[in-house]
């Protein structure tokens, strides 16, 4: 990319210089200060062009970075939302499990109370039957003793 290339139209010329006052002059007719001024003007224009190009590149990079950052933020928000929903789902499942466990706990307590009541009734009935049987055995034994005592006392 030289000064005579199409990218630098301000430096393309057919004559000696861009100054219209010198349209018919040759290079030898110009003095050094005029050539130095042209070079200085060309340098300033080139610097302005480079500055503009760098500005455009930086702007594209800034836009690209912003887009990348925006996508990353959106991905992070989506992941955060997904985690929040997952946590809510787990919380609901935990609450449901807790309700189920409380329900089972109440059922088992009820069953335990029934078993304890049945056991107490069984113990009472068994104790009563044992006592009745013991009383009957004792009564028979006493009656047998009486019979023996009567029988033995009459035989003596």
Description:
With 156 residues, this protein is an all-alpha fold. It has one domain. Helices cover 79% and strands 0% of the residues. It has 1 helix and no strands. Residues 11-16 have low confidence and may be disordered. Its main location: mitochondrion. It holds the Pfam family MIC19_MIC25. It is a lipid-anchor. It is found in: Mitochondrion inner membrane. This is MIC19 protein.
Oligomerization state of this entry? Answer: single chain
Mean pLDDT: 83
Mass-distribution shape = rod-shaped
Largest sheet: none
Compressed to H and E, one letter per element, the order equals: H
> What number of domains?
1
- The helix content, as a percent range, equals over 70%
SS-derived structural category: mainly alpha
- What is the CA-atom radius of gyration, in angstroms? 58 Å
| Residue windows where pLDDT falls under 50 for at least 5 positions | 11-16
Terminal CA distance: 157 Å
Count of helical regions: 1
The number of strands is 0
Percentage of residues in strands: under 5%
Organism: Meleagris gallopavo
Keywords: Disulfide bond, Lipoprotein, Membrane, Mitochondrion, Mitochondrion inner membrane, Myristate
Main location: mitochondrion
Protein name: MIC19 protein
């Amino acid at each position: 990319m030289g000064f005579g290339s199409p990218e630098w139209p301000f430096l393309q010329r057919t004559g000696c210089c861009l100054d219209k006052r010198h349209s018919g002059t040759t290079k030898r007719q110009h003095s050094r200060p005029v050539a130095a001024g042209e070079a200085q003007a060309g340098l300033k224009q080139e610097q302005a062009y480079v500055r503009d190009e760098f500005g455009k590149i930086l702007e594209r990079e800034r836009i690209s970075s912003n887009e990348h950052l925006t996508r990353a933020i959106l991905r992070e928000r989506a992941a955060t939302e997904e985690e929040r929903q997952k946590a809510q789902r787990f919380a609901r499942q935990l609450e449901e499990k807790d309700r189920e466990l409380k329900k089972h706990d109440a059922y088992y307590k009820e069953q335990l109370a029934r078993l304890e009541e049945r056991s107490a009734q069984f113990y009472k009935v068994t104790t009563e039957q044992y006592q009745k049987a013991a009383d009957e055995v004792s009564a028979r034994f006493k009656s047998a003793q009486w019979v023996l005592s009567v029988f033995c006392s009459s035989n003596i």
